[in-house]
Amino acid sequence: MINPAMFSSESTEWETPQKLFDSLNAEFHFTLDVCATAANAKCQHFYSKEENAFRQRWRGVCWMNPPYGRTITPRWVQKAYWSSQEGALVVCLLPARTDTIWWHKYVMKGEIRFLKGRVKFTGGLYSAPFPSAVVIFREKWWEKC
Predict the structure, then answer these.
(1) Which DSSP letter does residue 44 get?
(2) Which tens digit of pLDDT belongs to each residue from 21-74?
(3) Using CB atoms within 10 A as the burial measure, which of 16, 79, 119, 135 is most buried?
(4) Does domain 12-144 match CATH 2.60.40.10?
(5) What is the pLDDT of residue 130?
(6) CA angle in degrees (0–180, nearest 5) for 140-142-143
(7) Is pLDDT at 133 greater than 90 in this prediction?
(8) Torsions phi, psi of 96, nearest 5?
(9) Which candidate, 10, 17, 45, places its Cα nearest to that of 29?
């Protein structure tokens, strides 16, 4: 059975599974969770809704599991990409929406790791009804030459 909330606007926020985060954190050593709450932050330093990550400069090694939605995700992906061009390393957990403009405009400029199976977000009863990918945005120094 599929969780109906995953198809509705009931919630756009889904907490990263700890095992997935721990695996990526062992590789990247995150310093900032760019979209979190005090209850679900994966890093000691994080931006909450009140701090408005879009108004902040992202620095260091950032983790991003953005709110999911048609208009929300593209804005987060754009910010992640541009932050990487300013020197941050941003690792994102994203819905694999390979048919969207934002995927081709930004995601294709990063390193893409498709996840096998469907993510079961923390607190969810069922796995997501969509595939996911981990996308890594890094500054590409050679493009600035």
Answers:
(1) S
(2) 999 999 999 999 999 999 999 999 999 999 999 999 999 999 999 987 676 789
(3) 135
(4) no
(5) 78
(6) 70
(7) yes
(8) -80, 80
(9) 45
Round to whole Å and give the CA distance between 65 and 136: 12
Question: CA torsion, points 6, 11, 12, 17, in degrees to nearest 10?
Answer: -70
Lateral strand order in the sheet of 89-95? 32-33, 61-64, 89-95, 132-137, 111-114
For residue 120, which amino acid is it? K
SS3 content of the chain, % helix, strand, coil (to 5): 30, 20, 50
pLDDT tens digits along 77-98: 999 999 999 999 999 999 999 9
Alpha-carbon span 91 to 35, nearest angstrom:
12
Please name the residue that has the structure tokens 């009804």: 129
Helical spans, DSSP H, in 15-100: 18-28, 72-85
Q: For the chain, what are the domain ranges?
A: 12-144
Whole-prediction pTM: 0.85
CA dist 106 and 121 (Å) reads 24
